[in-house]
Task: structure prediction
Amino acid sequence: MDGGSWGALVLGILWSFIIFFIGIAIVAKLLVGNSWRQRVLLSTLPILSLEASLCAIASMLPPEDPDLILFGIVIAYILYRIFARFSWVPRLAGGVYVVFEALLPLLALSTFRVRSLFLVNIVLVTIAVLLMEVVRRELKRIRDA
Amino acid sequence: MDKVGALLIGIILLAIVPNVAGQGGPFAGAENMNGTGGNRAFEAFWGILGNVSTLVVEVNSSPDQDNVDSLIRWTHIGEENAGNISALLWKALLNAKDSGVKLHYTADELREMASNISRNGLPPKTVQALKEQGWSDDQINALISYIRDHSNEIVGDFDLGAYLEALSDSFIEVGRKYSEYESWALEKYYWRNALSNPPNGSTVSNPYVSSSEVNELDYAASTRSTDSLLSTVNSLLDDIKFAIVDAGTDYYANGGVEFQTTSFSSSGETIRTYYWPNALKAYRLVSELYTVAVALKNGNSNENLWDMVRQYRKELLPLLDVKLISTVFIPAPRPSPSPMPTLLELGSPLTSPYAPSNEPKLVITDVKVIRTGSDFIRGVFKYRVRVDYSVSGGPVMIDWASFNDGAVSKSSNPGQIAYPGAGSIQSPVFIVPLGDLRASVSGVVKIRYLPMTSPKGEIPNGGPGGSIQGYSNGGYPPQGAPALVMETYHGTLSLISEVDPGKVRFRVQAVKVGTEEVEYTARVSNFNPVPVKGTLTFYSTLPEENYLIGRVINRTEVTVMPNSEVTVDLGTVDYTRSGTYEFTGILSFEGFEKGYNGEVTIITPTTGGDGGELRIDNVKIGPLPPFEGDTVEFNVTVVNSYDSAKNVSLRLVTTGKYGRELADLRNGTVGPRSVRTFTLYWAGLEGDYTYRVELSSNDGDIDSREGDLLVLPYSARDKLNVLGKLELSPSTAYIGKTEKVAVKIKLWDTRSRSTLRWENHNVEIVDGRGVVWWPYKGRVFEHPRDVKTGEGYMYYDGVLNLHYGFNATLSTLLPVVNHNVTFYLVVDGHKVAASRLTVIDDNPVRAVMSCKPAVVPLGRPTQCTVHFELGNAGTVALNLKEIDFGGKRVWPSGPDSVIVSEKTVTLSPTSMQRSLSITIGTGKEFTDYYLNHPDFNYGYKMIGYSYLVVAKIGDQLRVSDVIQLSDPAEVQTLEDKAKNAYNIIKTIGDICDDAKSGAVGIAETAVSKGSRELAWMAYYHTLLENQDTLDNNNIIGG
Result:
């Protein structure tokens, strides 16, 4: 895989990560009435987004089955239902967010070989990190309250 | 009258003439160099008369050009001299009256005068005057004694006034005699081989001598303006002489002349041939009038002369009528000479990253500044920059030219094709502040051009072996890519000049000296008080292979002294082929420029017997575009190179949706070795038509021309505000010889002019199958590829921002494919013009390829069928070697979706027509292969572009067609996707109970399309760009 293809893949991951992250956050905020479930969903939000976005990327590679996106969403839903069964899950939130806030910039930095893609990835990762930071602080506020 | 009376008058005259001479009276105006003025007028009279009489004898025996020219010049001087003397005599009469000299003498008074002289001698004043004339005392005494001895012979009265008046009038008669000889000289030379049967035609007004000009004589007479009279007469003489001497082609008995005029417009030039039956009579009348005008100008205030002027006008008017014999319209790009080009110093040539190394190439030779007017009040100087260039190695298309004066950068988009040889290009208007009537200009000029053929004659972008394997820039041949040349210039111009360019006249005269040879001479005359030095450059178009090229024939320095004329021999041009050739002479002097354009038609009889040719030279259609209800004129020019006149019949046949129709029929005769234009008319209903003009004679059908014509609906007349036309150059392409055609797109807004109001228009060139050939359908995220600006418009990638009332000219190069193509110009979804590219295949094996469908929905296959036809009786085996799609080889190595029915086709006398079919599937495998296997599926990115499909057969044969990939019906919209997703979600609703279908659908599209779009923008778009030829057309690989 050459620099361009890797850069484009990372770009796809970051882009779909942001989309899913925003989408699931909206779902958590507006559609989930139960505050416990809401906390579980927000705490595992980066994991679910990454899982869905990997499925989305897979859907774009041959043999290009768009149903993989739906499959990823379904898996994310199942993961969420599993996470909801364990009471310790919300306590993982801090660690999860720290890992993701470090991992994604590394991913973006790894595309330095193609400057045009690198620039776009840096912009996207900045947005992703900002979004995660906003959600992390919101979670902290809920927990402290 | 007796002798003594005459002597007495002489004595009286002597007393008067020095008197008025001292006052400066009539002699003040006698200024000229021929010694015709003042006292010298009388002296010169005999000299002129002597010269004229000698020349008349010489011309009568040998009427050569030199003798005739001399006689014309001397008779003209004689007319002036006669007018002068007439005026002098009249003034003498007036002076005599004014100074109280008695004019009427009775016989008694004369006798008394004589006896007075006998007694007291001559009055001292008269004696003095006689002495000044060189009389000795003895001679004076002899005169006195003569008067004394014969004083008793005086018998009658004498009226000095009537005598002087009659003498003055008699010199007008002398002038008339000179005029007679002048026109006789003209007749002797130019009418020496006068033809007997004058041509016929409709009577029209004279293009050279207008009746309004003649009517100025009446105006001059009523206002008593001698200046205006003389200048009118002079200009009439010049004009008539020009029609006879310079423009005259044939001379007919009784002083008739056939001459040609050329008028230019933006679309081309019109050459009209006229017959003027009374040219010589008109010349004689006007030269007679010249004597009268000179007399009046120099002070002859005889009322009768003004009556004569009116009478001459009356006689002259009916002599001006001419007959229009033929009209020929020739479209032609031509260098337009403009005033004041000043050569600037060039800087050292700048190195450019795109500097041309390969031929064909264009080199800037000179940069000049051309003054377009100056605004002294606002203290600015307006100018254009003219760049002279020379092209070598083959034709190029000048795509873009940029001029930067250090403060402003302006560009123009000439879209002109430059053939090998010299040419020039002009910038838009620049402004520079004026200091001390001097202007300093400097700047940089850049010209971008596209070669029209590669050095080896290959289609541009065809790599070694004809295929393109890689995508790296290094893998691409440089041919076909635009090249850029740059030059700097600087200089200071003085805006003051002693030379009035209006007083310099310049003409080029063409004389046929053989069947194909034309001798050119230039005549430069200078009426300025200072000598004029200049450079004369003479160009002519010459035939070369399939096109005409402009060549500099001669460049020479000329110096013209004040009030004189020089004749410069420009050389003889041998045109090797029948045709119409234009010539241009440009005289550059003291920062001014004068041009003279003309053209010659050469008709060469084909060798052998009375071989000749009868053919259609061209067909011009107007108005364009026609609307329903318009009568469309077809001006058909027919050339006859036989030695005899030919009866021809022209038929105009149109074929449209209502079927075939014989639109018009014209019969006529084309004279021996001549050209004639016939006009055929047709009016059609809205729709798309094919027209065919057929030329037939007694021998049957000879020649025909075909084309396409689009008639716009009547309702569109008010709706369509922007009209346009397409000009293909050439419009007939030869397979294997013509690789690209240049297309000039002219668009104009029909509303009243305003720079404050404008509209955006989408412009496209599509063919009859709907394939978009132009413009490049660039994506919004890319830098606009094709940006052109000009006065009143701005254009970028297919969107034209056009101001009300302005027009725009755009251009592109399109590849030639193996079948005729009708191109339509589409403006905002409306077809406004059609133009057909006729493709002629004169190779031994003719091949035509057509792909169906031509607009292919992405993912669907298209079938390209190649029909072969054998032109001779041999046997040929044709091997399909390669198939290129959009510049990339897709067969034999390539995706499996490209299927070929058979690899070898054998043509023989028993099976002279065969065909093979190529099926190109445009599915994912194909697009992945074409785009070099990107990680994502970017097939949809190939939509909207057109692709050149080339099949290479054997070593030489190439057949091609253009197809377009379109959005397939299967590709769903966002809404369809959302619906699909919703259906799926519903079935698995129990699992994802808190998800909403729309959100998932949107997410799917946002994720898949969004990330791919971003990656495309950032990285992958070069996949298609690398396939492109930068021609700004929409055809990848072409």
Chain A has six helices and no strands. Chain A has a mean pLDDT of 87.
